[in-house]
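Budget justification note: compute hours in this period were largely spent on complex prediction jobs such as the one shown. Inputs:
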Amino acid sequence: MHRLPRAAPDLPAESPDTKSRILDAAEELFMEHGFEATSLRLITTAAGVNLAAVNYHFGSKEELFQAVLTRRLDPMNRDRMELLSTYEAHAGDRPLTCEKILAAMFIPALRLARDHATGGKNFLKLLGRAYADPAPFIREFLSRQYGEMIARFRAAFSRALPHIPREELSWRLHFVMGALSFTLAGTDVLRVISQYHPDEASNDELLLKRLAPFLAAGLRAPSPAEDGGHHPLLDA
Amino acid sequence: MHRLPRAAPDLPAESPDTKSRILDAAEELFMEHGFEATSLRLITTAAGVNLAAVNYHFGSKEELFQAVLTRRLDPMNRDRMELLSTYEAHAGDRPLTCEKILAAMFIPALRLARDHATGGKNFLKLLGRAYADPAPFIREFLSRQYGEMIARFRAAFSRALPHIPREELSWRLHFVMGALSFTLAGTDVLRVISQYHPDEASNDELLLKRLAPFLAAGLRAPSPAEDGGHHPLLDA
DNA sequence: GCTCATTTCAAACGAACGTTTGAATCAGGG
DNA sequence: CCCTGATTCAAACGTTCGTTTGAAATGAGC
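Corresponding output:
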């Protein structure tokens, strides 16, 4: 099935196997232009491989896209769950704080953004954009990939915030994922909103350090159902 | 330039002028499949008009997309700013609450979702997805359309939260826009997160009533810069 | 050194795309 | 009634798309 050709004795950092070169090029180009607007010819040219290589190694363009996502999303979500388990074991039977749970979500993403020099950041952008893509095969794929992790984290938040009704918590988790993916996608809408310190905008750690307190406060907000109701919003 | 053919005496709800039929069909299909994956042939067939009509009336596919967005986005953002001005005038020289400012952002969006029977909800979904689209012409268009409104609202939040540094506030405004657009886009990721009460998920008013307290609490959170620092996140 | 399965390659496939063209159709004013 | 400008229409334009094909190249095992 898989070929193990040269053991790559000491080639500098160039020309890993064809499959990886396609994945790297596809990751960057999908991130830059989106799925539909990125042609296989663009990808294979950038990767320096033959056009037919994609269909040979991956089967189709859609399967290539899923392979691009799986390669990094799978380990990242596994890391998230492991980190959450570590925190929980360390806390004994006391519930975790929201900040700690959010840290279990963010740290693996940060690790990804830093480890692979450019690849990681490209991937997070790509992931943020995939969230908003209407293509059914993307939506189903993400549901499959995220299902287990989300369930674990919802349970953790549920213990951390016992006074928040389950349904309300589901919504807030949805908002958290929205703000996170929007932020990681790093769209240039930011240029409109802030006066845009470019050197800081690219610093993901600082970015998430700002996002976490924001989200933690939102998660802890009194539930509309528990504080007697009548919020001013939308009643005017 | 524009033709005013029949005054449409009492045609039930069918066959407005060609331009509107194209806009309606395009709005729904762009929402459903995205910009790149929606062909002009699909749009014109759904609208019951000739293929060439798009290029005749709008010039190109890109200009059609911008026309779809402008048609509703323009009035909505104008409504938002007017509502904010109304609230500010009513409050005299006291700063508005975060909830009130958020209401000025949400209510026009809700009005849009309700007024035009199906069109409005389609549009909000489309708008949420356009936020994440990498196409340069979309990004530039949104920057142009949103610039003025964002500036107004940032000023309002700045008065409501004088203890939050300007830069921190810019980030939080970014998070607010992210959560809002993600929520309005209404991706099915939601199906993963919550156990999904379908009849409630489609109720935008309830949805935004949950989102507003969440965001208001996040906006009011102590700034990492002002509370002496050392947050637990990311230090583990 | 031949074998055979794996991988690469140039070339082509049919389909679908956005856009253009030029004639047909229409409505209203002289 | 024809003229004029605006709109619709069928047809075709050239390009690009994802995928397939069949032969050439490759490399490990006997």
